[in-house]
C-alpha cells in the first residue's frame, strides 16, 4: 500500500496543481533541464527579436490540459477502487458507491480547502456524450413516471406552504426536479441481490427497472426542462408531451434494433478481419447512441436495445477473442464511468455552494420514499394477477427499498440549465437524497434482505439432468398448449423463434452449419474411438461420448469458433481446454459486474482431475493383476495403447504433475500451487475414479489423452438457464426465459456468455466414459470378462 | 332444465377433482369437442392430427401421456385406447399454476405431481424406474430436431445423465454395482433445485385467481 499511497499523494498534488489552470513552473518531483536560454521575462531591451536558440525542452501544458486532467482523475478514482478491495470486509457491507463518494468527499474537501475549482470536465455535453453510454444501463417506464409525477406534484403542493419559502418554484420546475430524483441507480442494489442470491424474478425486475428507468428519466428530464422554460402550459402541450414521450422511447428502441441488425449484418463478413470486430461492436453502439442524441430521442434506450440485439446475433459471428475483448472493454468502461461519477459526486458535494432549505429537502426525501413504496405496491398489484409467480410482500419490500438514487440523478441535476431560479436548491437536494439513499439504504439493504429472508434462488442447477428436463418441460408445455389451443408466452416465443430461424438468422448470421474443421476432426476421432470400444469389448456400450456432441447438445446448435488456427490435435486440445475453463462461469448466474471471470476454480478442478488421472496412469498399473475384475473398465484391451491414435506427447508418464500440466495446458499460468490433492472433495465421478485407481484403465489413458482437460463434474455448469441465450437451428424452442436472460446478460455485458463451443463437453466426455465403462449403467453379464 | 343440471353437477365433480374453474372447464370442453369431432372420446389419432404439434420433438410422449392411466391418479397402470373428457381434464390439471393462495404443502404436492408426470413420460414400461434405454429414448427424441447430433451423441448424453443420477443418489457404489434405473425418489432428488413452478404450467384462459381451487394433495 506504500507505493499506492505515494502515488496517490503525488497525483493529488499534481491534480491540485493542474486544476489551478496555470502552467506550473516545474513540478517539484521532476527533474528538468535548464533551457539554454533564459526566457524573456523582463522588459525587452531591444524591440526587435533576439536570436533565440532552439529550445531543447519546452512545456506546453494547455495543449494537453483536458485529457490530462481527465486521465488523472480517472487514475485517482481507480486507485481508490484498488484501495477498497484491500479490505474485503468493507466491500461486503458497504457498497462501493458509498466508498467512492466518501473518497470524493475527502478529495473535495482537500480541494475546497485550497480553494480550487472542480474540474470543468463535467459539463453537460461531456456527460451525455462520453460518460453516459458506458454506464451500465438498466427499467420501468411506469414506475419512473409514477415517481416523477407523484413527487413533483407533492412537492409543488408543499411549495405552496409559505413557511418553506419556496413558493417561487412552479409546477414545471418541480416536475423537472422530481424527474431527476426518480432515477434509480441499481449498482449497489444489484450487487447486494447477487450476493444474497435473491430469486430470479426479483433480480430481473430490479435489473429491468434500472435498465429502462434511466431512459425514462432522461426523457422526462428533457421534456420537463423544455417545458419548464415555457411560461404557460396548455393542455395541448401536455398531450404533445405524452406523444413525445412515446416517440422518444419507442424511437430509441427502434434505432437500437436497427443498429443492432446492421452490426450483425456487418459482422457476418468479418471472418477475415477478426482484429477489428470489437471495433464494430463499439462503434455501432456508440453510433446508435449519437444518432439517437441527434434526433433527441432516448439514446440510452437506443444503446441498450442495440446491445441486446447485437448480443444475440453478433455473438455467433465474431470470434472467441473478440467476444472476450468486447466483454472486458465494456466492463472496464462501465467501471470507469461509474467510478468517476460517484467520485465526482463526492468532490462536488464539498466544493459547490449549497442552498439549503430544510423544508424542501426533507420533504423531498419523504416523498421519494413514499412514492416509491406506493408505486411498487400499486404496480405489483396490477401485474401480479398476470404473473405466475406473484411478488409477495417481501419481494415488494426489496424492490421498494432498493430504490437508491445515484449517478443519473447527480448528472442531471448538475447539468440543469441555469435559468432555473432555484438551481442550487435542486442540486443540493439531489445530492442530499443521493447521499442519503446510497449511504443509509445501501448499507442497510443487505442485512435487511437477509433478515426478511427474501426468496432465494438455487443456483446449483448445472447438471445434465436439469438441462434435459428443462428442455423436456418446455416442449411439453408447448405441446400441451398447442393441444388445448391456449397460448401463453411459450406460443409467442415459439412463433418468434420460427421467424427468427427462418428469416433473421439466415440474413444476419454467417453460415453456422459448417463446423470448424477442428471440431469436426475431433468428433470424428471420438467416434472412431467409440467404434473401437464397441468392437473390442462388447456390443452394448455406447461409451464414447463425443465431447463435441455433448457440447452440441448443450448448445443445440453448433456455434463453431472459426478462429481455430491450428489443425493438429494439440492445439485443438489447448483451445478446448482453454475454452472449458470459462464455461465454469455459467454456474455463476449473475456474475458480479465488477469482477472479471475467475478461472481459479475451474483450474483447480482440472488439476485435481488431472491428478487422479495421473495416479491411475502410473506406469506399473498397466500390467496389474487385477485385470479380470477390472476388465470392464477397459476401453481397449490391455496392451494396446492409444498412442496409435493420439500423439503420445500429450501424456508424460511420470508422476510429475507439473509436467503434465505444462504439457496439457501450456497456456495456463499458476498451477504449481496445487499439488495432487485427494479428490475426495471433488465431484462424485472423480471420487469414483479414485476408487478405481488400481484399474489400469487404458481407458483413463484414453481419457487422459483425449480429454485430459475433461473434468468430471456432476454439477457442471451447462445450465444455460442462467447463461447466455442459446441459439439453435432447428428446435423451435430453446431460450428458457430467453428475453429475460437477454436483459440480464446484457446487464452483465455478456460476461457470462461463454461461447466456447466445446467447453461443456470435455467435462463430460471423460466422465461418462469412465462411468459407463466402469459400472453402473450396464449389467455385468454383458461384460465378457474373459475377453482380452 | 335437466341437462343443465347434470352439466353443472358434472362440472362440480370435475372441479373437485381437477381444481379448474367452471369457465376453464367449459373452454377445455369446447376444445375437447373440437379435437374429438364432437364425439365422446378422443383417440390417439385425433391428437396426432393437431398440426401445431407436428414440430414438437416429444410429440409421442405427450400424446401418450394423455392415455397413460397413471396420470389419472387412480393407481392404475396401463394405457387407455381412448379417453373421455374427464381423463383429458385430469391430465391438464397437472399444469395448473399455483396461485397466491396456494399453501406450501399444496405447492409441494403440485410439484410432486408435475415431477410424477415427467417421470411417467420417461417410464414407458410402467415398472417404476427409468432405465437407461428409456432415458436414451427421450434424449434422442429431444435431440432429434437438432440435426447434426447423431444417435451416439444422444446415447452418450443419456449415459452421462444416468451417471449423474447414480452418483448423486448412490454415491458409494461399488465397482460391481449396477444401477438399475432411476426411481421416482432419485428423480425427485436430481431435480430438487429446479424451479418447476415457473416452467411447468399453463395459463388457462379465464383464469380467475380468486375462485380457483387450490390443488388437492396428490402423490
From TrEMBL, chain A:
<keyword id="KW-0732">Signal</keyword>
<keyword id="KW-0739">Sodium transport</keyword>
<feature type="transmembrane region" description="Helical">
    <location>
        <begin position="329"/>
        <end position="352"/>
    </location>
</feature>
<feature type="transmembrane region" description="Helical">
    <location>
        <begin position="98"/>
        <end position="115"/>
    </location>
</feature>
<protein>
    <recommendedName>
        <fullName>Sodium/hydrogen exchanger</fullName>
    </recommendedName>
</protein>
<feature type="transmembrane region" description="Helical">
    <location>
        <begin position="429"/>
        <end position="449"/>
    </location>
</feature>
<feature type="region of interest" description="Disordered">
    <location>
        <begin position="646"/>
        <end position="788"/>
    </location>
</feature>
<keyword id="KW-0915">Sodium</keyword>
<feature type="domain" description="Cation/H+ exchanger transmembrane">
    <location>
        <begin position="136"/>
        <end position="449"/>
    </location>
</feature>
<feature type="transmembrane region" description="Helical">
    <location>
        <begin position="245"/>
        <end position="266"/>
    </location>
</feature>
<feature type="domain" description="Sodium/hydrogen exchanger regulatory region">
    <location>
        <begin position="543"/>
        <end position="646"/>
    </location>
</feature>
<keyword id="KW-0472">Membrane</keyword>
<feature type="transmembrane region" description="Helical">
    <location>
        <begin position="399"/>
        <end position="417"/>
    </location>
</feature>
<dbReference type="Pfam" id="PF00999">
    <property type="entry name" value="Na_H_Exchanger"/>
</dbReference>
<dbReference type="GO" id="GO:0015386">
    <property type="term" value="F:potassium:proton antiporter activity"/>
</dbReference>
<dbReference type="InterPro" id="IPR004709">
    <property type="entry name" value="NaH_exchanger"/>
</dbReference>
<feature type="transmembrane region" description="Helical">
    <location>
        <begin position="286"/>
        <end position="308"/>
    </location>
</feature>
<keyword id="KW-0050">Antiport</keyword>
<keyword id="KW-0406">Ion transport</keyword>
<dbReference type="InterPro" id="IPR006153">
    <property type="entry name" value="Cation/H_exchanger_TM"/>
</dbReference>
<dbReference type="GO" id="GO:0098719">
    <property type="term" value="P:sodium ion import across plasma membrane"/>
</dbReference>
<keyword id="KW-0812">Transmembrane</keyword>
UniProtKB/TrEMBL annotation, chain B:
<dbReference type="GO" id="GO:0004860">
    <property type="term" value="F:protein kinase inhibitor activity"/>
</dbReference>
<dbReference type="GO" id="GO:0005509">
    <property type="term" value="F:calcium ion binding"/>
</dbReference>
<keyword id="KW-0479">Metal-binding</keyword>
<dbReference type="Pfam" id="PF00036">
    <property type="entry name" value="EF-hand_1"/>
</dbReference>
<keyword id="KW-0649">Protein kinase inhibitor</keyword>
<dbReference type="GO" id="GO:0005737">
    <property type="term" value="C:cytoplasm"/>
</dbReference>
<keyword id="KW-0472">Membrane</keyword>
<dbReference type="InterPro" id="IPR002048">
    <property type="entry name" value="EF_hand_dom"/>
</dbReference>
<feature type="domain" description="EF-hand">
    <location>
        <begin position="110"/>
        <end position="145"/>
    </location>
</feature>
<dbReference type="GO" id="GO:0030154">
    <property type="term" value="P:cell differentiation"/>
</dbReference>
<dbReference type="InterPro" id="IPR018247">
    <property type="entry name" value="EF_Hand_1_Ca_BS"/>
</dbReference>
<dbReference type="GO" id="GO:0005634">
    <property type="term" value="C:nucleus"/>
</dbReference>
<keyword id="KW-0539">Nucleus</keyword>
<dbReference type="GO" id="GO:0032587">
    <property type="term" value="C:ruffle membrane"/>
</dbReference>
<protein>
    <recommendedName>
        <fullName>Calcineurin B homologous protein 3</fullName>
    </recommendedName>
</protein>
<dbReference type="GO" id="GO:0030027">
    <property type="term" value="C:lamellipodium"/>
</dbReference>
<keyword id="KW-0449">Lipoprotein</keyword>
<comment type="similarity">
    <text>Belongs to the calcineurin regulatory subunit family. CHP subfamily.</text>
</comment>
<keyword id="KW-0106">Calcium</keyword>
<feature type="compositionally biased region" description="Basic and acidic residues">
    <location>
        <begin position="1"/>
        <end position="16"/>
    </location>
</feature>
<dbReference type="InterPro" id="IPR011992">
    <property type="entry name" value="EF-hand-dom_pair"/>
</dbReference>
<feature type="region of interest" description="Disordered">
    <location>
        <begin position="1"/>
        <end position="20"/>
    </location>
</feature>
Amino acid at each position: 500500500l506504500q507505493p499506492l499511497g505515494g502515488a496517490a499523494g503525488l497525483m493529488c498534488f499534481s491534480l491540485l496543481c493542474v486544476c489551478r489552470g496555470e502552467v506550473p513552473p516545474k513540478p517539484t518531483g521532476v527533474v528538468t533541464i535548464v533551457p539554454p536560454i533564459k526566457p524573456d521575462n523582463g522588459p525587452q531591451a531591444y524591440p526587435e527579436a533576439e536570436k533565440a536558440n532552439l529550445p531543447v525542452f519546452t512545456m506546453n501544458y494547455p495543449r494537453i490540459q483536458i485529457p490530462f486532467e481527465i486521465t488523472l482523475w480517472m487514475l485517482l478514482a481507480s486507485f481508490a477502487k484498488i484501495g477498497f478491495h484491500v479490505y474485503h470486509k468493507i466491500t461486503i457491507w458497504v457498497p462501493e458507491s458509498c466508498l467512492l463518494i466518501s473518497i470524493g468527499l475527502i478529495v473535495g474537501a482537500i480541494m475546497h480547502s485550497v480553494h480550487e475549482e472542480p474540474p470543468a470536465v463535467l459539463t453537460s455535453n461531456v456527460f451525455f456524450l462520453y460518460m453516459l453510454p458506458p454506464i451500465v444501463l438498466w427499467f420501468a417506464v411506469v414506475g419512473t413516471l409514477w415517481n416523477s409525477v407523484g413527487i413533483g406534484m407533492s412537492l409543488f403542493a408543499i411549495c405552496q406552504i409559505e413557511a418553506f419559502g419556496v413558493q417561487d418554484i412552479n409546477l414545471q420546475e418541480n416536475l423537472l426536479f422530481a424527474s431527476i430524483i426518480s432515477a434509480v441507480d441499481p449498482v449497489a442494489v444489484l450487487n447486494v441481490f447477487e450476493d444474497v442470491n435473491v430469486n430470479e424474478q426479483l433480480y430481473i425486475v430490479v435489473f429491468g427497472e434500472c435498465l429502462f428507468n434511466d431512459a425514462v428519466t432522461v426523457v422526462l428530464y428533457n421534456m420537463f426542462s423544455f417545458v419548464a422554460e415555457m411560461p404557460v402550459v396548455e393542455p395541448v402541450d401536455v398531450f404533445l408531451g405524452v406523444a413525445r414521450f412515446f416517440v422518444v422511447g419507442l424511437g430509441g428502441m427502434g434505432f437500437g434494433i436497427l443498429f443492432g441488425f446492421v452490426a450483425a449484418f456487418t459482422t457476418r463478413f468479418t471472418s477475415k478481419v477478426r482484429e477489428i470486430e470489437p471495433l464494430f461492436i463499439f462503434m455501432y453502439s456508440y453510433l446508435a447512441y449519437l444518432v439517437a442524441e441527434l434526433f433527441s430521442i432516448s439514446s440510452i434506450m437506443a444503446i441498450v436495445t442495440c446491445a441486446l440485439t447485437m448480443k444475440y446475433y453478433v455473438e455467433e459471428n465474431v470470434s472467441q477473442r473478440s467476444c472476450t475483448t468486447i466483454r472486458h472493454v465494456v466492463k472496464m468502461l462501465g467501471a470507469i464511468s461509474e467510478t468517476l461519477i460517484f467520485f465526482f459526486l463526492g468532490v462536488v458535494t464539498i466544493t459547490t455552494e449549497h442552498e439549503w432549505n430544510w423544508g424542501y429537502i426533507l420533504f423531498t426525501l419523504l416523498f421519494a420514499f413514499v412514492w416509491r413504496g406506493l408505486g411498487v405496491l400499486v404496480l405489483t398489484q396490477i401485474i401480479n394477477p398476470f404473473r405466475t409467480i406473484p411478488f409477495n410482500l417481501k419481494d415488494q419490500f426489496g424492490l421498494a427499498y432498493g430504490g437508491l438514487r445515484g449517478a443519473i440523478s447527480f448528472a442531471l441535476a448538475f447539468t440543469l440549465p441555469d435559468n432555473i431560479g432555484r438551481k442550487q436548491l435542486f442540486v443540493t437536494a439531489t445530492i442530499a437524497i443521493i447521499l442519503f439513499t446510497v449511504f443509509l439504504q445501501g448499507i442497510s439493504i443487505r442485512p435487511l434482505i437477509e433478515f426478511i429472508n427474501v426468496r432465494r434462488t438455487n443456483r446449483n442447477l448445472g447438471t445434465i439432468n436439469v438441462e434435459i428436463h428443462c428442455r423436456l418441460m418446455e416442449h411439453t408445455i408447448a405441446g400441451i398448449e398447442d393441444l388445448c389451443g391456449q397460448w401463453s408466452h411459450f406460443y409467442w416465443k415459439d412463433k418468434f423463434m420460427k421467424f427468427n430461424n427462418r428469416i433473421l438468422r439466415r440474413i444476419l448470421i454467417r453460415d453456422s452449419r459448417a463446423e470448424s474443421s477442428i471440431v469436426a476432426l475431433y468428433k470424428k476421432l471420438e467416434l472412431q474411438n467409440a467404434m473401437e470400444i464397441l468392437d473390442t469389448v462388447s456390443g452394448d456400450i455406447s461409451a464414447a461420448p463425443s465431447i463435441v456432441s455433448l457440447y452440441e447438445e448443450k448448445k443445440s446448435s453448433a456455434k463453431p469458433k472459426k478462429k481455430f488456427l491450428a489443425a493438429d490435435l494439440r492445439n485443438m486440445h489447448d483451445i478446448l481446454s482453454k475454452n472449458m475453463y470459462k464455461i465454469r462461469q455459467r454456474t455463476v448466474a449473475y456474475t458480479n459486474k465488477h469482477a472479471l471471470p475467475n478461472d481459479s476454480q475451474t483450474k483447480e478442478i482440472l488439476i485435481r482431475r488431472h491428478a487422479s488421472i495421473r495416479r491411475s496412469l502410473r506406469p506399473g498399473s498397466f500390467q496389474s493383476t487385477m485385470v479380470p475384475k477390472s476388465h470392464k473398465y477397459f476401453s481397449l484391451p490391455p496392451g494396446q495403447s492409444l498412442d496409435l491414435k493420439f500423439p503420445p506427447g500429450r501424456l508424460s508418464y511420470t508422476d510429475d504433475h507439473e509436467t503434465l500440466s505444462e504439457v496439457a495446458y501450456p497456456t495456463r499460468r499458476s498451477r504449481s500451487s496445487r499439488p495432487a490433492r485427494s479428490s475426495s472433495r471433488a465431484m462424485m465421478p472423480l471420487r469414483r475414479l479414485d476408487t478405481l485407481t488400481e484399474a489400469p484403465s487404458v481407458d483413463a489413458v484414453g481419457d487422459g489423452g483425449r480429454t485430459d482437460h475433461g473434468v468430471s463434474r456432476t454439477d457442471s455448469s451447462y445450465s444455460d438457464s442462467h447463461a447466455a441465450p442459446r441459439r439453435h437451428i432447428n428446435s423451435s424452442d430453446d431460450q428458457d426465459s430467453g428475453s429475460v436472460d437477454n436483459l440480464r446478460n446484457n446487464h452483465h455485458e455478456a460476461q457470462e456468455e461463454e461461447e466456447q463451443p466445446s467447453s461443456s463437453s470435455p467435462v463430460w466426455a471423460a466422465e461418462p466414459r469412465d462411468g459407463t465403462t466402469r459400472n453402473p449403467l450396464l449389467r455385468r453379464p454383458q461384460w465378457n470378462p474373459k475377453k482380452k | 332444465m335437466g341437462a343443465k343440471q347434470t352439466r353443472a353437477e358434472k362440472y362440480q365433480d370435475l372441479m373437485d377433482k381437477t381444481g379448474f374453474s367452471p369457465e376453464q372447464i367449459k373452454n377445455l370442453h369446447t376444445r375437447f369437442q373440437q379435437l374429438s369431432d364432437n364425439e365422446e372420446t378422443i383417440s390417439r389419432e385425433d391428437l396426432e392430427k393437431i398440426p401445431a404439434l407436428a414440430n414438437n420433438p416429444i410429440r409421442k410422449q405427450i400424446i401418450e401421456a394423455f392415455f397413460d392411466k397413471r396420470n389419472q391418479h387412480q393407481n392404475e397402470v396401463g394405457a387407455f385406447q381412448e379417453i373421455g373428457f374427464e381423463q383429458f381434464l385430469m391430465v391438464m390439471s397437472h399444469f395448473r399454476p399455483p396461485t397466491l393462495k396456494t399453501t406450501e404443502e399444496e405447492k409441494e404436492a403440485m410439484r410432486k405431481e408435475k415431477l410424477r408426470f415427467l417421470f411417467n413420460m420417461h417410464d414407458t414400461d410402467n415398472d417404476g424406474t427409468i432405465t437407461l434405454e428409456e432415458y436414451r429414448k427421450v434424449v434422442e427424441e429431444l435431440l432429434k430436431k437438432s440435426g447434426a447430433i447423431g444417435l451416439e451423441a444422444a446415447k452418450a448424453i443419456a449415459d452421462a445423465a444416468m451417471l449423474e443420477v447414480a452418483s448423486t443418489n448412490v454415491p458409494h457404489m461399488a465397482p460391481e454395482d449396477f444401477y438399475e434405473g432411476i426411481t421416482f425418489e432419485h428423480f425427485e432428488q436430481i431435480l430438487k433445485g429446479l424451479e418447476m413452478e415457473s416452467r411447468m404450467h399453463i395459463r388457462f384462459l379465464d383464469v380467475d385467481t380468486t375462485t380457483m381451487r387450490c390443488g388437492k394433495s396428490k402423490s
